[in-house]
Design brief:
The chain is α/β, with parallel strands linked by helices. It is built from 8 helices and 7 strands. The strands form 2 sheets. A 5-stranded parallel β-sheet has the order 2-3-6-1-7, with helices on both faces. It is globular, with a radius of gyration of 20 Å. 26% of the residues are buried.
Length: 248
């Protein structure tokens, strides 16, 4: 059903990336949301696919930005980042705020000590500003390699750059000029509501130990990759919470 709606929104191919994007944005409601970096050439459809998929989510699910400064994250409203996904469509737009973003991902909150002037005494005082997560993060880049501190925190995604996908894109562009009807708000609203009714409940994976033998233990970064993989499984179960058995 997700693939059907996204296709009607104008995305062709990219089935695996469509579903992974949907899972990552859904994971915002977990204690440790997922994050992703979409890597590909210019015109590969990195931003278009992401921009289309966020239409299936209520505005409360994400924060979409084109640029951000380091200090801007500390002066947002209370709970501005809590259980949301930050989307920056080009990684260069978020580089200045990299440290704040990484801290939100790893620590689940931001905490900074600043100096402010007391209006009554005229003296400078120290004040703590704290912003709570948890928060996930999605960005796109044309770079094959990014800073290792960012890369290991994110799932790397790669758009389909094959000639077959290019042909599918041509057909999609043609369809716009052949009277294809755009999707209506009435078709998207049920998807928004489906996200809003998801309860923040823990997920139990009884077969979790079966996966461990497939992950190498001589590469340090797989410690995070293993967590990401299990979080994907967790999010799939979380998304189907109305169809799964509950344990009291």
């Amino acid at each position: 059903d997700i693939l059907m709606i996204v296709k009607k929104l104008g995305v062709v191919g990219e089935e695996r990336n469509i579903l992974l994007h949907y899972i990552i944005i859904t994971s915002r409601k977990l204690k440790k949301p997922l994050s992703a970096t979409v890597k590909g050439d210019s015109s590969a459809g990195k931003s278009y696919t992401l921009l289309t998929i966020i239409k299936m989510f209520p505005k409360s699910a994400y924060i979409d930005l084109t640029d951000a400064t380091p200090q801007s994250f500390y002066y947002c409203p209370e709970d501005h980042f809590k259980h949301k996904i930050i989307v920056i469509f080009e990684k260069h737009g978020g580089e200045r705020a990299d440290y704040a973003i990484r801290t939100l991902q790893s620590e689940g909150k931001l905490k900074i000590q600043v100096t402010v002037k007391n209006p009554e005494t005229g003296l400078f005082e120290t004040q703590i500003i704290e912003k709570d997560g948890p928060t996930g993060f999605i960005t796109t880049t044309t770079d094959s390699f990014i800073h290792v501190e960012n890369d290991t925190r994110n799932i790397s995604m790669f758009p389909d750059q094959s000639s077959e996908q290019t042909s599918r894109v041509y057909e999609s562009v043609d369809a716009r000029y052949l009277g294809m009807q755009p999707i209506t708000d009435d078709e998207l609203n049920p998807w928004h509501h489906a996200q809003l009714v998801l309860e923040q409940i823990p997920v139990y994976i009884p077969f979790v130990k079966c996966f461990r033998k497939y992950f190498p233990n001589h590469i340090v970064r797989t410690r995070r990759d293993y967590s990401h993989f299990l979080a994907v499984v967790e999010t799939v179960a979380f998304l189907h919470q109305k169809q799964r058995a509950r344990i009291e």
